């Protein structure tokens, strides 16, 4: 009987629901435990409820029902400033007329902390994100990546336990986005804080998350580490949304097969695979992406197949070619029955 109580979750959502006065249910009774000190990405298509969920955790949006616990403390009805969370926004929301230092020190000023002390703390944090030497610059004199670091320092000055990030990289150009995403990940590990990051990018979520939460229509479709969500999508929606999969209607029901797990051969008499016709060939660098249509009249679904550049070079295909598709049985994933069914 000497079992230890489970470690408190960084954030726990219990039957959390949001119904906006005007509309349908934006967040529909979701349950979620996010481990303390982990990087969690909330992912899903536009309108799935991820920002509403984040805003409820932040205290920027009221809940309709359910509870939010932060390290076992019920914060559901606390004001935003008293929760132990801090938010970093898409546009960074820095004050343009204030220096980086004053932007970072701003919330301490609001709390009445003396100028010397708040500047000391703000300078410390700016040093920590390698921005100490630019403390006197205004946001307009900083690059997108530098502004992101100032925004991070500003969020950290309230000493949050949980940092909430709402599409923090979407304002950056693609090159900087990849660089800053690596920085976010490094900071999260260094600080040991719980990060909850909302994104609509599967790639971003896979690169960053310890835990991915895929949402659809206000509900959670799947929670798990990226490799599990990608390799064992729990629902047809997840398989399609994550991309890189084909959903095929087999005699055993619907299965998901990764597009790099499908093998092609020229169609020959007696072939045992699925016959299909190539309609599209796209060169992508390290691989070639083929678009196929099934010849058995099934669904009219487009199938994508990814071939390594070298195998394509050995056996090229062109639009109009008839091929036979095969895959190993163990690489076809059926979907567990949905709990609602
Ligand atoms: N203030 C509001 N009043 C009424 N309905 C709202 C409000 N904010 C969001 N919604 C609705 O709630 C649902 C979820 O919106 P939410 O912003 O949480 O989605 P999201 O997944 O973050 O989308 P996006 O990626 O486009 O930001 C949508 O149907 C949206 O139209």
TrEMBL record:
Q: Which residues form the signal peptide?
A: none
Q: Name one GO molecular function term.
A: ATP binding
| Domain of life assignment | Bacteria
Which keywords fit this entry according to its UniProt record? ATP-binding, Cell membrane, Membrane, Nucleotide-binding, Transport
Question: What residues does the ABC transporter domain cover?
Answer: 11-242
Family matches, as PANTHER family: SPERMIDINE/PUTRESCINE IMPORT ATP-BINDING PROTEIN POTA, SPERMIDINE_PUTRESCINE IMPORT ATP-BINDING PROTEIN POTA
Q: What is this protein called?
A: Spermidine/putrescine transport system ATP-binding protein
């Amino acid at each position: 009987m000497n079992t230890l109580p489970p470690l408190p979750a960084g954030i726990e959502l219990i039957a959390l629901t949001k119904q906006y006065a005007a509309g349908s249910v934006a967040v529909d009774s979701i349950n979620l435990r996010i481990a303390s000190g982990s990087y969690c990405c909330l992912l899903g298509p536009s309108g799935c409820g991820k920002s509403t969920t984040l805003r409820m955790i932040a205290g920027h949006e009221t809940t309709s029902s359910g509870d939010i616990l932060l390290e076992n403390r019920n914060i559901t009805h606390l004001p935003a400033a008293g929760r132990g969370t801090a938010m970093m926004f898409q546009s960074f929301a820095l004050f343009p007329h204030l220096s980086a230092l004053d932007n970072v020190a701003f919330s301490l000023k609001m709390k009445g902390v003396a100028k010397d002390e708040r500047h000391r703390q703000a300078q410390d944090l700016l040093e920590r994100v390698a921005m100490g030497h630019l403390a006197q610059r205004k946001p307009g004199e900083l690059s997108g990546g530098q502004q992101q670091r100032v925004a991070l320092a500003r969020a950290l000055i309230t000493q949050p336990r949980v940092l909430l990030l709402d599409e923090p990289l979407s304002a950056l150009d693609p090159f900087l986005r990849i660089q800053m995403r690596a920085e976010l990940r490094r900071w999260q590990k260094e600080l040991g804080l719980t990060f909850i990051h909302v994104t609509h990018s599967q790639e971003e979520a896979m690169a960053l998350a310890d835990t991915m939460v895929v949402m659809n229509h206000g509900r959670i479709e799947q929670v798990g580490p990226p490799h599990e969500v990608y390799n064992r999508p729990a629902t047809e929606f997840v398989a399609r949304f994550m991309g890189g999969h084909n959903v095929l209607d087999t005699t055993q029901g619907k299965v998901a097969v990764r597009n790099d797990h499908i093998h092609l051969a020229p169609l020959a008499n007696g072939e045992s695979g699925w016959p299909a016709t190539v309609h599209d060939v796209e060169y992508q660098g390290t691989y070639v992406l083929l678009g196929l249509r099934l010849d058995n009249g099934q669904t009219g679904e487009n199938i994508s197949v990814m071939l390594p550049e070298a195998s394509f070079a050995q056996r090229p295909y062109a639009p109009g070619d008839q091929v036979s598709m095969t895959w190993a049985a163990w690489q076809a994933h059926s979907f567990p029955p949905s709990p609602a069914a």
